[in-house]
């Protein structure tokens, strides 16, 4: 029919969502709240509308960051943002989590649960991931630094692992501590603390903060800043998620009588794509500038995030359509050419051919951002079009079948009933 093959579309009929959430916080605190919160939404509101509304709030938060700190320097660069900004990010992220949690409940209320909802939900989550990395790094006063790059890699890796695990096991598994639940609430708390004390608070040494600088033996440890300590904790969290995800995948492969090592090869696409981006950032200084220390750092991260969203979007599509795992992405070639060009002083002892000055460098980065946006936008548009046409549904409209089996728009009437 278009982007998705006819065979893959037929497999949509066999798809059913499966998920496991072992978080006590979800079970005893958040889920009761979400169950109540979804009742505030009319049945005429489509689940995907709720999902997109949550992402729109994050876009608004991101826009306020660009307004008050357009060069992404935070307080290390002398930029003092108003404190209400961070409180608004805290509220915005909590609302995003809530909207993201109830869209599935709304889908079941309206009879619209299906593969399109999962595709749309994961697509929004993928975009939110990079945006929150940028916002959280600014709130932690990391700004233009390799810690921000490390945060981007760790967060994207966690998302990739979850998607990779779901592809092989057939279900979304959330443990007792997961990114979508506890991880998001942790960031919500970071925004709130920054709202009270400012980003520079996170430069306080962890021993100083805990008042352990006078404790024998303990005071021999490095007084690592709180923001660096948080990044170190995140690295261990990624390693924990890796072994947990592989344990679940291995169990599923053994049950199916398949190889337990072959799935590990499917981690290579993320390693390759992330390595290309880091290689580009690691270029030697030329023209008195490096990319990571310039105002182009945020557009670069956004382009990287869009390419990642495209990558995991194709993984989810492969999952819901029982299609082969996507190994290759043509955007790798574009980014690799740019990375090699930037590193020509190191590789060939000569200046770059394309990125010869700050203006050309900006043109390449913004062109990469534009191409990444168009590529991901095209993917989303074609996939939504194929699925909605095949299944006879709409993306942002609640639809029901009439007595003849024809899909019709529905809307609530004054007496609370629905009319066709």
Tell me about this structure:
The chain has 420 residues and is mostly helical. The protein has a single domain, classed as Four Helix Bundle (Hemerythrin (Met), subunit A) (Up-down Bundle). Helix content is 63%, strand content 4%. The chain has helices spanning 6-11, 24-37, 47-68, 83-110, 115-139, 146-169, 179-197, 206-209, 226-256, 262-265, 268-281, 297-320, 331-342, 344-347, 358-391, and strands spanning 19-21, 172-174, 399-401, 407-409, 411-412, 418-419. Strands 1-2 form a two-stranded parallel sheet. Strand 5 (411-412) and strand 6 form a beta hairpin. The longest helix has 34 residues, at 358-391. The two termini are 28 Å apart. Belongs to the CDP-alcohol phosphatidyltransferase class-I family. It catalyses: CDP-N,N-dimethylethanolamine + a 1,2-diacyl-sn-glycerol = a 1,2-diacyl-sn-glycero-3-phospho-N,N-dimethylethanolamine + CMP + H(+).
In short:
With 420 residues, the chain is mostly helical. The chain is 63% helix and 4% strand.
How is this fold's topology laid out?
Layout (H helix, E strand, L loop, with lengths): L5 H6 L7 E3 L2 H14 L9 H22 L14 H28 L4 H25 L6 H24 L2 E3 L4 H19 L8 H4 L16 H31 L5 H4 L2 H14 L15 H24 L10 H12 L1 H4 L10 H34 L7 E3 L5 E3 L1 E2 L5 E2 L1
Parallel strand pairs: 1-2
Antiparallel strand pairs: 3-4, 5-6
Helix pairs in contact: 2-4, 3-4, 3-5, 4-5, 4-7, 5-6, 5-12, 5-15, 6-9, 6-12, 11-13, 12-15
List keywords for this structure.
420 residues; mainly alpha; Four Helix Bundle (Hemerythrin (Met), subunit A); two-stranded antiparallel ribbon; globular; disordered C terminus
